[in-house]
Amino acid sequence: MCENHRFFSYLCYTMLNIENFIDEIIPPSDYQHRDGFSNTQSIDKLDEQEKKLVEDALICRFSTDDPDTLIIDTLLYLRSEKAIPLFYDALQISSSAMIKLIIGTSIYELNKDADMINTCILSVGELEKNRAYYMYNLPTAFYYLAKTHNEKLNLLIGKYVNHKEYLISYNAKRHFRRNP
């Protein structure tokens, strides 16, 4: 009985530490907490077993209704194949073009699903339609598109290199690969 109690205490202690760690690597989703934030150094310090525990905890926190982009990015950084079905579910549910683009690029990076290229292209088209915010959303979109190293998506970024809006043109030039 004493051995079971020790194991249970260790398990509770481990889970509590994982939850505290998750709180550190996934801060509140506001500008004050996330501007310039990166959790990759913290994750890189973990061993493989700890990474699996973090992956499982992030999957438990992932919401298909309102996905947190930092959780998506972190699961991608962990190369989580367990997250792929959740990503597909969130892709079907989401009405946000930016969320669809982020999820689409993440799925593509994890399993090279060619359908995600069209999802990303359609998402950029939706971002373009929303003129009130497109100037701020497209630069972020270029970052995610460029991470895929996909020729079609690179050419899509290239279409914005000479855009009349400086912010869009500048960021397109930063992410466009001239000779991929």
Summed up:
Helices cover 71% and strands 0% of the residues. α7 runs parallel beside α9 and α8 runs antiparallel to α9.
Describe the overall structure.
Helix 7 (97-111) runs antiparallel to helix 8. Helices cover 71% and strands 0% of the residues. The N and C termini lie far apart (62 Å). It is an all-alpha fold. The chain folds into two domains: 1-94, no CATH class; 97-180, no CATH class. The protein has eleven helices and no strands.
Structural class: mainly alpha
Give the quaternary arrangement of the chains: single chain
The description of the largest β-sheet is: none
Q: Unreliable segments (pLDDT under 50, ≥5 consecutive)? A: none
Shape: globular
Number of strands: 0
Radius of gyration based on Cα positions: 19 Å
Percent range for helical residues? over 70%
Strand content: under 5%
The separation of the N and C termini measures 62 Å
Number of helices: 11
Number of domains: 2
Average per-residue pLDDT, rounded, comes to 89
Could you give the order of the helices and strands? HHHHHHHHHHH
Topology record:
Elements: H1 2-25, H2 31-34, H3 40-44, H4 48-61, H5 69-77, H6 84-93, H7 97-111, H8 115-129, H9 134-147, H10 151-158, H11 166-175
Features:
single chain; mainly alpha; 2 domains; 11 helices
